[in-house]
Write a structure and sequence with these properties.
The complex is a heterodimer. Helices cover 73% and strands 0% of the residues of chain A. By secondary structure, chain A is mainly alpha-helical. The two termini of chain A are 44 Å apart. Classes of the chains: A mainly alpha, B mainly alpha. At the A-B interface, helix 6, helix 7, helix 11, helix 12 and helix 13 of A face helix 1, helix 6, helix 7, helix 12 and helix 13 of B.
Chain lengths: 308, 356
């Protein structure tokens, strides 16, 4: 007992050491300190738990689901209330809603990850480029960003999907097109903050190309605030995707997308409320998880803006 | 903007003010024009460039070749893209979005008919959100880290996270089907629909002006639930921002000075701190209003509220692109206008920014 105690003590000592012996120790130590701040925030831990559960459910949907998400029992299981056989009830095509909600987590993750992987890099490139190059490039890029920032996102996404045709990929594209501007603004602000630092001057003197400076020395500095912002935006992305699904423009049947499931439950809301209840609750919990996680990350990574 | 300070030593302050103001006005108009041009460019792109064949979208695939060719020319699709964009700009600026396939009316007439319903809903929603959200935000800031603060925070976070159309459905189930407190669907009961003659299109105002209190009560019963839902979304945003603004003010030195003078805590908070927080709050309320105008799209669908949101979603489901794009341009224009005005208000109200 005492040996494990002393060894954890030693580990902690090693982590918070003022004189790290290697780069690896330093970054691990920094991570440990941030993690300690983050873990002290109970709500943030709840958020983290929700998101990890989401990942877990999406990974093991095949094992967790009790029925097929797309093929129902039309003959004897239409619109059944929740029961031991069908935990969340069944929908109008006799499909098990619990299994559909479980599989729906994959679609939600797909949307969120894809939007984050497209919108954030676009914003990062535009923002760092504008911030580092200054002058007319900066003016033009930021003008375009501001114009996009002033657009109504949901309505524009609706119009985009209407033109592109309904479907989950087009919904992702439409959301990504309308959600990059805040990242560009953020990346530019971070770039302006670091571009006059001595280490940038040093790599400029060594003769690094502007491309290399932006890619290797400026972009990494933008990452932490960008990650926080993306996490906070996840809830909005999920809600927009669900909204597109709700008006029939997102994932198409028979895909178990949560927004579309609510739409199909709309007709039965007065008598068979469970058809719409479960998928909506799933959206609420996951968005809440991302919001709590994002709040916690911001407080831990960026103490300046906490309480905002 | 740089001011030509040293060049005009005499009459100094007035000269700088006027030229700075002029520069600001020119810049503002330039920004507004660029933003609107951007909106029209994007909607043009959506309507004319993305669809593989816009003629096909209008006529369907069974039209004879001669009709297709004629329509193509009528729509100006044989012209260069730049010229097409110019024609599009001209027609939009004249308020012409073409005809709706679904209603066969000019889209602009349809929008004029449905827009008041959306404005009425969003306005009431913003009112509810601000009237409740600002005091809650102040409370959370003053009693920081207390139970009250935590509750306001969680209520706000749920407001940020809940799909509003789902909450709308559940509230219909509770307040309409079970408790029968509210009216549904639409803005007014069928019993009054033909006897009541709206003048402005804002039914609450119309009913009150005509002293038809029975109708007023019925309209109120219909609008209260959707407006409360939008109000909740607005409350989530407004209370969070109010909390952060007031917290920021409470750390300032003038608050310490006011305390040292022995002013009551209530006076310090409501008269001193909130007054300084009011300037950014105006922006927040304006932005939340713009957000509700947009957010009403989904809410209107749930409540069968005959506003521009329902108009857009109905048109979407019938592939009526003229109507969808017309609605997008109108909502986008109002959205941008509110953004610009709130920016302007911020600069005018805050003495520190002084038309820079």
């Amino acid at each position: 007992m005492s040996t494990t105690n002393s060894s954890t003590m030693a580990l902690r000592e090693w982590l918070v050491s003022e004189r790290p012996l290697s780069r690896w120790q330093a970054s691990l130590g920094r991570f440990y300190v941030k993690w300690r701040d983050f873990a002290a925030n109970k709500l943030a831990m709840v958020g983290l738990f929700i998101i990890i559960s989401l990942l877990f459910i999406a990974c093991f949907a095949d094992l967790l689901a009790t029925h097929s998400p797309v093929v129902g029992d039309l003959k004897s299981a239409r619109l059944l209330p929740p029961s031991p056989e069908y935990w969340f009830g069944t929908d109008d095509l006799g499909r098990d809603i619990y299994s559909r909600v479980i599989y729906g987590s994959r679609i939600t993750l797909f949307v969120v990850v894809l939007v984050a992987l497209t919108a954030a890099p676009i914003g990062l490139v535009i923002g760092t480029l504008a911030g580092y190059s200054a002058g007319w490039i900066d003016a033009v890029l930021m003008r375009i960003t501001d114009i996009f920032l002033a657009f109504p996102k949901l309505v524009l996404a609706l119009a985009f999907v209407a033109a592109l045709g309904p479907g989950i990929e087009n919904a992702v594209l439409a959301i990504a097109i309308t959600s990059w501007p805040p990242y560009a603004r953020l990346a530019r602000a971070e770039t302006l903050a670091v571009r006059n630092f001595d280490y940038i001057k040093a790599v400029e003197l060594i003769g690094a190309s502007p491309f290399r400076i932006v890619l290797r020395h400026i972009m990494p500095m933008c990452l932490s605030s960008l990650i926080v912002r993306v996490t906070l935006d996840m809830a909005g992305i999920i809600l927009t995707a669900a909204g597109l699904g709700f008006v029939g423009l997102g994932a198409q049947p028979p895909l178990p997308e949560w927004g579309a499931m609510i739409a199909s439950g709309r007709r039965f809301i007065l008598d068979q409320w469970w058809v719409a209840a479960a998928p909506g609750l799933a959206i609420l919990i996951v968005s809440l998880g991302f919001n709590l996680l994002g709040d916690g990350l911001r407080d831990a990574l960026d103490p300046r803006s906490s309480d905002q | 903007m740089e001011s030509p300070g040293p060049a005009t030593p005499r009459n100094e302050s007035r000269g700088i003010d006027a030229s700075a103001l002029l520069a600001f006005a020119i810049r503002f108009i330039g920004v507004a024009a660029a933003t609107y041009l951007g909106l029209l460019a994007v909607t043009f792109f959506i309507g004319r460039v993305i669809p593989i064949d816009p003629v096909l979208a209008v006529l369907g695939d069974r039209a004879p070749a001669s009709v297709v060719e004629r329509t193509r020319r009528e729509m100006g699709l044989d012209l260069p893209l730049v010229q097409q964009f110019y024609l599009y700009l001209k027609s939009v600026l004249a308020g012409d979005f073409g005809r709706s396939v679904l209603t066969t009316n000019p889209v602009m007439d349809d929008i004029r008919r449905v827009f008041p319903a959306t404005i009425e809903l969003a306005t009431l929603g913003t009112l509810i959100g601000s009237v409740l959200g600002i005091p809650l935000g102040v409370l959370a800031a003053v009693k920081r880290n207390s139970i009250a603060d935590q509750i306001v925070r969680v209520v706000g976070l749920i407001g940020y996270s809940v799909p509003i159309f789902w909450l709308g459905l559940l509230s219909l189930l509770l307040f309409y089907a079970k408790l029968q407190w509210v009216g549904f669907p639409g803005r007014i009961d069928v019993a009054y629909e033909y006897s009541f003659v709206p003048l402005t299109g804002f039914y609450l105002v119309d009913a009150a002006a005509q002293r038809q209190w029975e109708v007023f009560y019925d309209v109120l019963r219909h609008i209260l639930l959707p407006a409360s839902l939008l109000g909740y979304v607005s409350l989530a945003y407004v209370s969070r921002m109010t909390r952060s603004f007031v917290l920021n003010e409470l750390t300032q030195e003038y608050i310490v000075a006011a305390r040292a003078k022995g002013l009551s805590e209530a006076r310090i908070i409501w008269r001193h701190a909130l007054r300084n927080a009011a300037v950014p709050l105006v922006t927040v309320v304006a932005l939340s209003y713009a957000g509700l105008l947009e957010g009403s799209v989904l809410t209107e669908t749930v409540f069968s509220w005959p506003g521009i949101g329902l108009y857009i979603t109905n048109s979407l489901q019938n592939a009526d692109m003229n109507a969808v794009l017309g609605g997008t341009v109108v909502i986008g224009s109002v959205f941008i206008a509110i953004n610009l005005i709130s920016d302007l208000l911020y600069r005018l109200l805050d003495p520190r920014t002084n038309a820079q």
